[in-house]
Amino acid sequence: MDIQIIGFGVIGQGFVEVLLRKERFLKQRYGLDLKVVSISDITGTAVEGEGIDLRRALEVMRQTRGIINYPGARKMTGVEAIEAFEADAVLEVTPSNIQTGEPGLTHMLKAMGQGKHLVTSNKGPLALRFRALSDAAKKNGVEFGFEASVGGAMPIINLAKVNLAGDEILAIEGILNGTTNFVLSRMAKEESPLEIVLKEAREMGIAEADPSYDIEGIDTAAKLVILANALMGIDATYRDVKTQGIRKVTPEAVKLAKEDGYAIKLIGEVRNSHLEVAPRLVPVDHPLNVDGILNVALLQTDVAGDITVVGKGAGAIETNSAILSDIISIALKRGLG
Ligand code: HSE
């Protein structure tokens, strides 16, 4: 299966690392030979029909921070690379833009328009134009995998679509942002102020490029909207979510809640077409009370009852568990070797 990578930051490089690590496993278990035929970032595009030397690409990024420095790389944009080169699928992992969805939205529509399957972790375009993107996938007869856009490694989209295929999802509530959960957990343990702990989350590389997206609840709202669209058929954008972040949560409030047997968590909830993100008191023994960078989602369904999933909600390597699972499903479904 030939793949083009568009965006070569934390997640794109994490994908290449995971691919190097899993090459033999993928071949042995699935007979799958994943070949990266081009990598584009903001500086240009590296291209090799026989497959990019992935170790070299990582080395180039470590030393120079631009794929243009890969031998023979061209001054070519992601859109041009999607148009110019043959591939089975595009992995779109450029930074998420929640205001315009760009440049991801254009890359995604272009890839699908060219008959290429699409896999992404990029939330912005999905939170703004989910319907347009799933329509484009249908129209062009391509697969659209976005498990990595919500909850990092935590399986939720394919879990609901595949394992709970016969169930109706009645409501979803959960913690969908690793940064705020990390911040609130640390505030509870050490009573440190938000700004200090947020700095640490940024250093760990889990916060958004603009961390106010995490703190103000916007990232949670974007993920909630993706779940509402994908799993409950609700046609909404993140602007339809009533959103309140954790900016006003003080160490004192966290301490008082703890003394009463509660944790303060930033919870996203969709129920009866109402979408809301807000800090809430969660009893310490409740399944939604998970700590650190963990994400959790509680799905209320009509047949199975309640299902709770927990997993690492962010991280360069962990998020690629979801990306790889989408790629493997597409390869198996479409008979790509
Ligand atoms: N900033 C996001 C988070 C990254 O903290 O969950 C993963 O979407």
Give an overview of the whole structure.
Helices cover 42% and strands 21% of the residues. The protein has 337 residues and is an alpha/beta fold. The chain has 2 domains: 2-152 and 316-334, Rossmann fold; 161-311, Dihydrodipicolinate Reductase, domain 2. It has a 6-stranded mixed β-sheet with strand order 3-2-1-4-5-6. Helix 4 runs parallel beside helix 5 (123-140) and helix 7 (178-190) crosses helix 8. The longest helix has 21 residues, at 10-30. The radius of gyration is 20 Å and the shape is globular. The termini are close together. Bound molecules: L-homoserine. The site of L-homoserine has 11 residues, from helix 7. L-homoserine (HSE) binds next to helix 7.
Would you spell out the secondary-structure blueprint of this structure?
Layout: E1 2-6, H1 10-30, E2 35-41, E3 44-47, H2 54-64, H3 78-84, E4 89-92, H4 104-113, E5 117-120, H5 123-140, E6 144-145, H6 157-163, E7 169-175, H7 178-190, H8 194-203, H9 212-215, H10 218-232, E8 242-243, H11 251-259, E9 262-271, E10 274-283, E11 294-301, E12 306-312, H12 319-333
Parallel strand pairs: 1-2, 1-4, 4-5, 5-6, 8-10
Antiparallel strand pairs: 2-3, 7-9, 7-11, 9-10, 11-12
Helix pairs in contact: 1-12, 3-4, 4-5, 5-10, 7-8
The structure holds L-homoserine.
